[in-house]
Amino acid sequence: MKILPYQPDQSGMAYSVGTTLDRFIKSKQSDFPFASGELSQLLRDIALAAKIVNRETNRAGLANIGGAFGQTNVQGEEQQKLDVIANIRFMRALSKGGEVCAIVSEEEDSVIDLQNGSGKYVVAIDPLDGSSNIDVNISIGTIFSIYRRKTPVGSPIQEEDIMQPGKEQVAAGYVLYGSSTMLVYTTGFGVNGFTYENSLGEFFLSHPAIQAPKDGKIYSINEGSELEWAPGVKNYVDYCKRSQYSARYIGSLVADFHRNLLKGGIYAYPSTQKNPNGKLRLLYEANALAFIAEQAGAKATNGTQRILDIQPETLHQRTPLWIGSEKMVNEAMGFLSKKREAVNL
């Protein structure tokens, strides 16, 4: 009997799908000596819910699940049908997995106590960010943060379990539903991205060890709010224009952040006269993306303070956000602190 060694295909007729998310998670379990597999399973639960939301998103135009739901959430924002669907999918996945004791969701007024005595983790999540873009087929996303509870397992959930600053996160990530669906996450040991292969139903490692460029030429800000900006913000945007930076603003936080993370750039949602405290939510939007940004060598601030150092005071607390390539964020902070003026450009 003749035995031949395996030779990888060189014909170009096939491609390597590489490492699955599940296998990658298992290979990294040793990074968490305090855990016994629960965090790994929690990440799998999130990935499963993301697959379901991806399916629902892809069929939204055919299944009459686009458009407004007819209610507003606690933010005073009109809920889209897919907002509600995504919230249900993630709630089910997180509650049935057994690792989570409480959930904070953009779509829920209060903390959801799962009354799971053995749950070690708290999840803060925006189930479907940018959902108003669904009807026009623009990329949307899911953003999530994972914290270890502070109180002993088995005891009732307390405020200290929920109101943790972003630096206490043990994991954070986002899912981008676009031309391809990607899951990007960090557990504090770098950032890795996984692309969903529909025919196999698996996420595969496609962007290992993501590092954000230290500088960039893209700025992302809603210039429709210019009349409500502080002078420092106006001066910085003028600087970007005079420097011939490219203006790129999708209006979907995950999509804008993802592009700038890979290509180099800055995303800004500053305070305005209408929203002096900013508009993005600290617990389940800014914290997660700030954790990812710093792990990839980028930077995130509210204009005066590192995002991950902010102590939350309310469940749906808002914050300004400046996030992206380190040099660009530092430049912007120079304008906000009035160390640089428009006349010096």
What does this molecule look like?
This is Fructose-1,6-bisphosphatase class 1. Belongs to the FBPase class 1 family. It is an enzyme of class 3 (hydrolase). Substrate binds at residues 129-132, 222, 249, 279. Mean pLDDT is 89; it is low at 11-15. This protein has helices at 21-27, 38-58, 60-63, 81-97, 159-162, 231-242, 253-263, 282-295, 326-336; strands at 68-72, 78-80, 100-105, 112-113, 121-129, 140-148, 169-177, 181-186, 191-197, 202-207, 218-220, 246-247, 266-269, 280-281, 299-301, 318-319, 321-324. It is globular and about 70 Å long. Strand 1 (68-72) and strand 2 form a beta hairpin. It has two domains: 21-207, Fructose-1,6-Bisphosphatase, subunit A, domain 1 (Fructose-1,6-Bisphosphatase, Chain A, domain 1, 2-Layer Sandwich); 218-344, D-Maltodextrin-Binding Protein, domain 2 (3-Layer(aba) Sandwich), CATH 3.40.190. It contains nine helices and 17 strands. Helix 2 runs antiparallel to helix 4 (81-97) and helix 6 crosses helix 9 (326-336). The chain has an eight-stranded mixed β-sheet, with helices on both faces.
SSE layout and pairing:
Elements: H1 21-27, H2 38-58, H3 60-63, E1 68-72, E2 78-80, H4 81-97, E3 100-105, E4 112-113, E5 121-129, E6 140-148, H5 159-162, E7 169-177, E8 181-186, E9 191-197, E10 202-207, E11 218-220, H6 231-242, E12 246-247, H7 253-263, E13 266-269, E14 280-281, H8 282-295, E15 299-301, E16 318-319, E17 321-324, H9 326-336
Parallel strand pairs: 3-5, 11-12, 11-13
Antiparallel strand pairs: 1-2, 3-4, 5-6, 6-7, 7-8, 8-9, 9-10, 13-17, 14-16, 15-17
